[in-house]
């Protein structure tokens, strides 16, 4: 029996599918504020839960005070923040401290129309629908939750700052997570100084909540399993229902021809991913596509097995010291967790 490859999948998505899919991924279907377990050694985590809960209550109160979204559609003006209360909440902290758990908990706690997506999924939505239609669709929402907020190029900077300005002006509350403070977005990746006015204007719309602590995915847990031998990997792939098996180089070539907006659909029905001949990748474009794929695998809790070199070698040292360092480290953290999932089975 031949194990199918991810590279043989060809998912098709319409713009309507992209909008419909803007909900928390399966890994975060059941998370709530009550299921977040703060690290007792990191008081900022318990404080962050309180701040997020209070933000969700403010969103619900604002929606109730406006008479729901239909009021705004027929000419009414929705209630906006008063005093020092801002329409945006920004969760800042390292990877693996539970920011996505808190963001999804906000989404679950808020009533009414709401959307949830990663930063990449949001920019993909604008690309599919156009800026004006995206604003029209999202302006009717009570809440927009944006995970993994990042500004990697000037185009995204202008796009997202304008989108958030339009949405918050319409009374939409925005909650976001990132590893970078909002006034430092883009730093080290492009000439952020040229866009300081736009970046600062956007950051002024957010209240910042810091979430400190070590990566919970590795707190007290063993190192990831060693790479498997080629023969053992092939056998494991054949014995695992719903598994795929790809060469790393072939998979990277395949991802280059697919828009990242389809990566989630690519792995929706996959139960385990097996990758042969893992080793350092070359080129930021290749590496960033792998980061996007790893994020979608992690969202869907799809475990991973590999042969070749250790997962920690996937991104060369010069990449780990560059402007996308935090993205690569997050991907390695998530891959480590996913590789443990199959090691336990």
From TrEMBL:
Residue stretches in coiled coil: none
Pfam families xrefs: AFG1_ATPase
Basic and acidic residues biased stretches: 1-12
Keyword terms of this UniProt record: ATP-binding, Cell cycle, Cell division, Nucleotide-binding
Gene Ontology molecular functions: ATP binding; ATP hydrolysis activity
SUPFAM superfamilies cross-referenced by the UniProt entry: P-loop containing nucleoside triphosphate hydrolases
GO cellular component: cytoplasm
GO biological process: cell division
UniProt-annotated stretches for the region Disordered: 1-24
Parts of the chain that traverse the membrane: none
Name of the protein described by the UniProt record: Cell division protein ZapE
Annotated source species: Allosaccharopolyspora coralli
